[in-house]
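Q: Here's a chain of 290 amino acids. Please give me its 3D structure as tokens.
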Amino acid sequence: MSRKKRINFTDISIILVITAVSITCLIPFLYMISLSFSSNDAIISQKVTLWPVDFTLETYKTILSDVEMIYTLGYTIVLTIVYTLVCMFLTICAAYPLTKQRLKGRSFILTVFIFTMYFSGGLIPSYILVKNLDLMNSMWSLILPGAMSVFNLIILKTFFASLPESLEESASIDGCNEFGILVRIVLPLSLPSIATLSLFYAVDRWNGFQDALFYITNKNLYPMQLKLYQIITANQQLDTQQGEGSVGAYIIPESLKAASVMFATVPILVVYPKLQKYFVDGVMTGAIKG
């Protein structure tokens, strides 16, 4: 006869702490939603809390009324996909050989990679490099400079190293070469880690803003975050021109900022649940095994 597990004081404490932390993380998000759906007068008078006051869709209409917004959204999706594919390709190509002890200079190569985590060339040299490579106003200026994360490389390398060597030896005996072993055995077994790192790369590119601000001046190549920044800036300039006497005639930046945050966050919220089952396994296995 099985006995029901009793919930002790420690379990209750953990549940309460996790619940409190979850609520703490959720409240700012709910507040931003409320701001984005609230009227100007309600925001100015600070009546908005966790529920919209004087419900309105004007902020979202302002964002979507820009005829270029749909194009920018599609372009950013394509940019994010290409960036993720390029980053994962380079990360896999770098991580897999570093798991092989027969690779000469493996420790030195790994040290060089890790060195770049602590020291970089800086903003000005990076800008000069992108300009000299003729990548300005190009999608590749948003892809190549950050095409591989050393942190993600270490996670994937550790995950690859945790796979049983007997599988690769068996495949080698059957006549499979290194490329075949990687594609047919290593990568299918590494889907949790690959999915997790792909999410890391995709979120990083989707939220990317600073590099586009430096390298892109062509409006057709603006990613989503920079486009939303331009909308907010234009609205703030309108705020200055209109003055305090006509506050109700336009959308104040606080509401527009909140709507912009929601507009940029929803695509990630749609993708994340599909990869959630891989997320914990991918991070934990890549971090502690090896």
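Q: Can you summarize the key feature?
A: Confidence is low (pLDDT under 50) at residues 244-249, 286-290.
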